Write the structure tokens for this entry.
Amino acid sequence: MIALVQTLVFGVLIGGVYALMATGLTLTFGVMKIVNMAQGAFLIVSTYLCYTLWDQFGIDPIVAAFIVMAPMAALGLVIYKVVIERLQRIDPGLTIVATFALALVAEALLALAWGPNQKTATPEYFNQAIHLGQLVVPRGQFYACVLAVVITVVLQVAVKRTWLGRSITAAAENPEGARLIGVEPARVGAWIFAIATGSTAFGGAALSFLYQFTPDTQDVWLGLTLSVVIVGGLGSIPGAFAAGVLLGVAEALTTTYVSVRWATAVPALLILVVLTIRPQGLFARTTRQDAAS
Amino acid sequence: MTAQRFRRLATLIAVALLVCMPLLSDDLYLQNLLIMTFLLAIGASGWNIMGGYAGYISLGNSAFLGLGAYTTGILAVRAGLSPFVGCLVGGLVSALAAALLSLVTRRTRGMYFVIVTFATLQLLGVAAATWTGLTGGSQGLALPLPTWDLSYQNWPFYYPMLALLAVTVAVSAWVRRGKLGLGLFAIQDDEDKAAGLGLRTALYKMIAFVLGGAFLGVAGGLYAYYVSFLNVAAVFDIVTSVLIVLAVLLGGRGTLWGPVLGAFIVAPVSNLTSTGLGGADSGAVRLLLFGGLLGAVAIFLPRGVLPVLQSWFRTMVARRSVGTMTDDGAETAGGSSNLPDRGSLADRAELTDVLAVRGVGKSFGGLRAVDNVDLDLTAGRVTGLIGPNGSGKTTLFNIIDGTVPTREGRITLRGRGIERAGRPTRAHLGLARTYQLPRLFANLTVIENIVVPERKFAFGRLWTKRVSPAERQRALAILDDLELAAHADGSPADLSYGQRKLVELAQVFWLDPVLVLLDEPAAGISPALSERLAGLVRSLRRRGVAVLLVEHDLAFIASLCEQVYVMSRGAVIAHGSVAEISAEQVVVDAYLGDSVVPIPAEGHA
């Protein structure tokens, strides 16, 4: 019994982190209908940057995330302007191909710069734990989960309450209508993309002290974040959070009761199952779609 | 003509060279390079059927290579089956996997497909690495070594692989020239519309994906025997998928020879880098090269090499032979109606119920778009549907034709409950529609657009010509009636807005429907064209078709419709003849306004 509760605690903690890692994709894929196959690469680039700030200057990875955020957002902006905006007009399929190409380039550059060996940031809390009776709550995971909740809540509020957030929703749901009321979808798109890549700084920071990472894990993280977005339903930040927790618990249960190796198959399996039985995601509601036709 | 002859000659020379190569040179490096090139070309040609024709991009096609390779390897090691037989089983396994994957994507579109294929590749990779009893896991799987005499060199691999490539390209060409290709390109342009015209799009996609997977599976089996050692990381590598996509994009997506050409560029580069580079960074450099190349092709050469070369060639030829064009559309068949007339049927079908809608409703979130609607349509009668913008007319259309699913209410078409039926099924029962803005398939010519609709699915028909001579004659007759015969082999993009509306109506006629839904047919077109449209609607009525017409132009409605339904806020608020509903106060309040002019009754003819 205690093992089960412990497993669930691990699952919920890591699930929050998964949701955090997927927030960027929730925005680009969910709101803009752009499948950014470089999400995993953006995450792992952020991870290396946070790791380096910690390794070279002793800056705590969570603090480092706030520094890394700016260059990542700038990178996203440039990529949007140079690649996405152009290709999305010709053929959205090409955007998928191009972003995946970008991911490979990023993976290669990381391997050239930092080498292919495993790394991990080790701030003093990374292997400490809080004990609650018989339960163990690792401090690193706890902090990462708190960070995840804070960032996703901030983003959720931003999307629901601010002018930019409402413009984003408007431009995504009805680009023509948005243009009529002075919201330029292309400009809004650039903003979303910048926010999305910027937010990978936080997911990357969490990743840097929770996991051992190498450049070639980018496609694993891509699979995981895609899974979160698909299970959670497109564009829904609360949905992504629920999906992240579901995924975390499913992985923890698989690790405890089946095997660690099969746990890595859980995200891919969830994608296939959800798309088969409920393509709109487990936590999404249907909306009117005929306005575009 | 010269371009075609040139292409045939070039193909012939290339094939002859490849066939003779092992006889002329005993260079093992060259043989190896060509075998790997054939493998990639098979993968690329197969990928192109789904990715180029239907527009569904896959990043997981190396899974088929892996499945074929491991099936062959396991059969050879555990059952002692010859890899040359085993590879056929491998192809079968890959085909089954592709069919299964198509089921997963049955209800999802476009961008989800790439995610499904990506996830499948990851899943299979994990499974192969974990299921060590079967695959040898990270230890790898060693196949029995070939037993033939060394003097044969790699011939026993070379010729089967070349033959398989020839078969793959031949099948790809067959698909491209047939109804299957027509359907796949239609799916690429507008899948919803294709389904609405009666194409079983899910089946079309499944066949396309299975074909690509099967050939790569067989090739994977040959590859397994050739390299004689399999490990999971190398076989289920996503980089193989990337090379396939790169070859297709570089050569020209959707063309027949582009993927082959692309493979002959990409494979040598790949081979050169894997043998030429050394050291710890070689993997990263390779990745950088292919990632960069793929990105550059997507951004700077999205159409690929072959289409660009073709358009150069065409402009050169065109410059030389200005003014030699002949006018094909000169023969006109006079003013008589060539639209297939079924007057006798009209008498038979007079006043039978075609469509009955009972208690249908639909909510989007909190919005009640359609609320408890009852509606009856009768054969040979035109029914109008009017109401303010946002009153639910188009949503009702979408519910009837199956675009929008609903759980409320019943819809009966010719006595059959269709509320659960998919769009192709409804089209097969004789339901057709047009859209507010005409939706034609941009990849197809005008005449191909017209012959896309089909009233039943027949597997054998997929392999017949896109437009058979009989179909061409019939379609030309229809186009002639619409005065569009000159555009028959042109692109729908060259037509005016009104002309595109006419072509969309011609698609409706081609389906030979019993029920037609017309969404604002007269909006935004000239009075002359509007009159012609009215004539087409009347000819539908003469043929015993039930027509439901959404229109804001009340004069247009009055001149055509026997009965009118009025919708407001999702509900039907009035129903009757034009004169009756014009007199009703609720209608005037909701829609017509105070200054409504009574409509002359003689407009009914």
Q: What stands out?
A: Chain B touches chain A through 58 residues (CB under 8 Å). Residues 323-338, 340-350, 601-605 of chain B have pLDDT under 50 and may be disordered.
